[in-house]
Amino acid sequence: MPTVEPGAPGPLTALSPVRLEFAQKAFIEAGGNLLLVRKSADDPFHPGRWEVPGGRLEVEADLDLDDHIRREVWEEVGLKVDPGPPFHLWQWFMPERDPRMRGGQVRVVATARSCRPVTLDASLDNQEAGDHLAEYAWVPLEEVESRELIPSLRPVVRAFLARSG
């Protein structure tokens, strides 16, 4: 194998940069219903599709993983939750939006967690502009799979329903 001088372009320089991020999704069940949120029409990736509350870790802001999921749920749907254990791990790729990483990708590694609601009065009032949420709904468990879900979330929902039923 040929050697490469330090700082010189090597065989991997042609590859697009990949940045790693971590996310958590909250599966909040109450009275046989699962809390879903629907993306707004202006969401850049999944307009109008349904998912569960959650988001990416803010390394500087989140004290630990429980704090992270509590913050995400509070921001997106205004609920307080008691985070439970993770039950599913998956990943997806997104185009990099940082112009300094032109042509790159973001690899998001995510975990799904069952969360017990401490409060039940959901609201979208706390969401940030980047959340792109149009509405929320408490959906009966038997109807969840019939919603137009974000594709990468479908196997996670099936795993959740298999545990619940």
From TrEMBL:
This is NUDIX hydrolase. Signal peptide: none annotated. Keywords: Hydrolase. It comes from Actinomadura graeca. It holds the Pfam family NUDIX. Gene3D superfamilies: Nucleoside Triphosphate Pyrophosphohydrolase (3.90.79.10). Belongs to the Nudix hydrolase family. It comes from the Bacteria. SUPFAM superfamilies: Nudix. Residues 17-162 form the Nudix hydrolase domain. GO terms for molecular function: hydrolase activity.
